[in-house]
Design goal:
Layout: E1 8-12, E2 21-25, E3 32-37, E4 43-48, E5 53-58, E6 64-70
Antiparallel strand pairs: 1-2, 3-4, 4-5, 5-6
Amino acid sequence: TGGDDGSVRAWDLRADRGGAGAYALTDHGTDVVSMALSRRGTALASAGRDEHVRVWRIDGDGVPTPQGSLA
């Protein structure tokens, strides 16, 4: 989910994790307006009103790691 506070929350809904845990990603300085998850669930991209696209890699543990930014 994306927020008007510039954060992206990546939710981990796997049962072995005890339900809905979230990782807060706060790289955007303004509202997050769009997000996309790769088909395999290994990458997440978000776009904000700051005119940047941020890309994260999601590892096997579901933990997002920043991979870069496009302006």
